[in-house]
């Protein structure tokens, strides 16, 4: 992906000569106009009632199911997502819209007794107005949907600003969503920092997923306006492997979480912490598992590790492993596109960037811990706190350590990757700001609570 100030160009990361899209960025003035059109459309969308909103979201789910093969192919071509994973993302996207199609019928408040005298006290949740959504390229259908669907279900209008690298996916999503919705209720705003800044300056509620640096700027700007904001900003996720774990099974989970989609997930495993006697057998098993990861053309259904999103992303991964002795990988395959081999490194010096910064690629560090307490300290030692996976055959040790992990998600005997869209999602520390996404938590974020006091006429 390359973008000039006024041009958005999207390339196929497996074949950079293949240009999917080249359009002019609309600019800040047009972005503000998009928000105003959404604001004008929102009251009628809310007034249409729960049945209309539910039917519309259900219709979107049906449409996405009907176009599943096309959307998966588009994700492969635009963002290099391996085909099998792209198909799973599209299926999950339709399920997200179907899940939130039931949300308009959920209770929107509660009735309370007055402290004294006749009357009623009510609480009621109401939409903010226009939800501004800023989304990354790595889940081009699922992330926009798990933000947009609850916002729409609650009665908001939505303006989606996708990452430039996923513009074609976002535009196609909008083409499929719009027929089910009134004009102006769901709009894609293509562009980069200029358009994103304009959206942050105008929307009534903001949800961001992306880099820590940009997310912090979004949070500061939205907070200064007094606008509700949530930001999911990545992770430096650990997998703790205890000596009693099934080492072969753990290695398979770790290899998938390190190399799946070339490690381009905020939930990917970046640090593998082997406890005590687990170190030697895990090192051997994980190296073998990473060597066996099917890598190559993302259009091949067998591929697990495809290309990185672009040249700069591939170069960043190479810079991160440079000078370190790779146990496996540490090479750039000689083929068109932005590929890097699944890589595991050990004996990384203290203070190295791999121990402090997120590197979005198929690269992990193997670390040793004396015991579970030591492993927890290592896990918590980084600025991020998104997800930790723990691998063990028994619950006693796991339960001893789980509550001391400073991460928003904890997965036992499972890869660090994977999200349940009906449960809250988000991290601590530099990984997240504000309320959680997904599930009922999303419905609460996209609404505000109002308290009503109803007293009979003439009451004193």
Beta strand %: 15-25%
User: How is the main sheet built?
Assistant: 7 strands, mixed
Compute the average pLDDT: 94
Strand runs, count: 21
Show unreliable segments: none
Radius of gyration: 23 Å
Q: By helix and strand content, what is the structural category?
A: alpha/beta
Please report the first level of CATH classification, the CATH class of the largest domain.
Answer: Alpha Beta
Strand order of the largest sheet: 13-14-15-12-11-17-18
* N-to-C CA distance: 67 Å
How many separate helices?
14
- Overall form: globular
User: Helicity, in percent?
Assistant: 25-40%
Instruction: Provide the number of structural domains.
Output: 2
Please tell me the CATH architecture of the largest domain by its name: 3-Layer(aba) Sandwich
What's the name of the CATH homologous superfamily of the largest domain? Aldehyde Dehydrogenase, Chain A, domain 1
* CATH fold-level name of the largest domain: Aldehyde Dehydrogenase, Chain A, domain 1
Brief summary of the model shown:
The protein is α/β, with parallel strands linked by helices.
Key descriptive features of the protein:
460 residues; alpha/beta; Aldehyde Dehydrogenase, Chain A, domain 1; Aldehyde Dehydrogenase, Chain A, domain 2; 7-stranded mixed β-sheet; 6-stranded mixed β-sheet; 14 helices; 38% helix; globular
Structure description:
This protein is of the alpha/beta class and 460 residues long. 38% of the residues lie in helices and 23% in strands. α1 crosses α7 (193-202), α3 crosses α4 (83-100) and α4 (83-100) runs parallel beside α5. The radius of gyration is 23 Å and the shape is globular.
